[in-house]
Specification:
Length: 89
């Protein structure tokens, strides 16, 4: 993923959506990744979840503030490498 610095203004508030299997430890993995890369991330206030209609999948929405391009790229790289993550938006 290449982020063009001139298209984004930092700090940049955004919603990060992550989806995966409902029976995987996705929430724990997501909290670990975001806590590693975001100093001010608090799961209790910045993370919400929603199960799929059949309960097979779960999606998480994280309200985050990205400080720079490197931080955005590092978070997406970590999410893409996580075996519990099926999709990120």
């Amino acid at each position: 993923m290449a982020i063009q610095e001139h298209l984004w203004e930092f700090p940049h508030a955004m919603q990060l959506k992550v989806m995966g299997s409902a029976d995987a430890p996705l929430e724990e993995a997501l909290v670990e990744i975001l806590s590693t890369h975001l100093d001010d991330f608090e799961a209790d206030t910045h993370l919400t979840s929603k199960p799929s209609s059949k309960g097979t999948f779960i999606s998480f929405t994280a309200q985050v503030v990205m400080r720079n391009r490197g931080q955005v790229e590092a978070i997406y790289k970590a999410l893409n490498e996580c075996p519990h993550v099926k999709m990120t938006i």
